[in-house]
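Bug #77: duplicate submission created two jobs. Keeping one. Sequence:
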Amino acid sequence: MINPQYQELANLLINHSCTLKKGEKLLIEAFDVPEEMVIATIRAARKAGGLPFVTWKNNLILKELISETTDEHMDLIGSVEKFRMKNMDAYIGLRGSLNISEMSDVKSDKMAVYQSKLLQKVHFQERVPNTKWVVLRWPTPSMAQQANMSTEAFEKFYFDVCCLDYTKMAKAMEPLRKLMNRTDKVHIKGPGTDLRFSIKGIPAISCAGEHNVPDGECFTAPVKDSVEGHIQFNAETLYHGTVFNDIRLEFEKGKVVKATGSDDGKINEILDSDEGARYIGEFAIAFNPYITEPMKDILFDEKIAGSFHFTPGNAYDMADNGNRSDVHWDMVLIQRPDYGGGEMWFDDVLIRKDGEFILPELKGLNQENLM
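Kept job's structure:
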C-alpha cells in the first residue's frame, strides 16, 4: 500500500505542477529515492491518462561516470539523454542525495564537461524550454542532519513545506509580479550590502509549485551590465558538493570584479568557468512560510521566508537578460532581523524591510498570511 503522503505529493506533481493530460509522455528521473514514491508517481500519471517513462539513477554511479569522463564520452551520453527528452511532454525530477558532498572531490574540469555536455544540452537547452517540468528534493536522514532536525521531525516539515496551498500562494504573489514588471531600479541595503541594478523590461515569473517543490519565489534577472555595488551573503551555499560561506561579491558594470569567502580560490575558479559566470542571471524574492533556516539544499534555501537570491551565471529563457554560462549558482541573503535585517527598494519606494513586505498589496506574502 502506498504511503498517503507519497500519493498526495505525486498527485500535486502530476496535476498541479505538470498539468499532465491524456496521451502526454512523462519522464520520471529518479535519483536515490524510494521505489514507492516512483510507483506513486507512475500511478498518478496513469490516472491522468499520461504515459510514464522512468530513468533510475544513483549518485555514486553518476560520480564514477563523471570522474574519468571525456568530452566525447559525455557528449554521447548527453546526446542519448537529449533524444529521450525531446520525445517527452513533461518531466519530473525526483532528486535524493545520501551525501550532499558526494561530488566534492570530482575535479573541476570534469565537472565542467558534465555541465556543458549533459546538463546544458539536456536540461537547459531541451527540458526547460520544451517540457512541462518540475524538480524536487527527496527527504533523507542526511537532509535532516543538514536542517539540525530529527528524521521524524524533518519528514513532517518536508511534507508541510511541499504540500502547502500553492493556489493561495499564487494569488498572493500576483501583485508582486505586476510590481516587478513595471519596476526599473532596485536598491538593496543591509549589513555589508549596498547593491543597485535595473530589472526594466525583463519579465517577472511567479513560482508556486509549477517547476520546483517546495516553491515560493518570484524571479526575474537584472539588466546584464546594470549591477553596481557589493553584497554580503549570509546563508551557506552548497555548489557541486562543496559548502561555501561568507561569500562577498563586488560589481562594476554588471561584472563580479572581486569575490571572497570561505574558499577564495575555489569561488573564483567557479566564477572563471566561462565569461558569463561573473555576470548575474537571476534575481528572485522568496517567501515560503515554512522554510526559515538554511540547510545547504538550494531547492529549500532559495525559498527561505524573508530572503532573496542573486545568481551568478546563466539566465533562464523566460526571464532572459542575455547572459549565458554553464554556471547557475544561487546565493542567498536572508534579511529578517535575526539575520541582521535589510531593506529592498523599487524605484525609490521601500517594498520590504527586515524580510517583511511593507506595501499593503504585498502583505499577503508575509509569513503569517501564507501558513
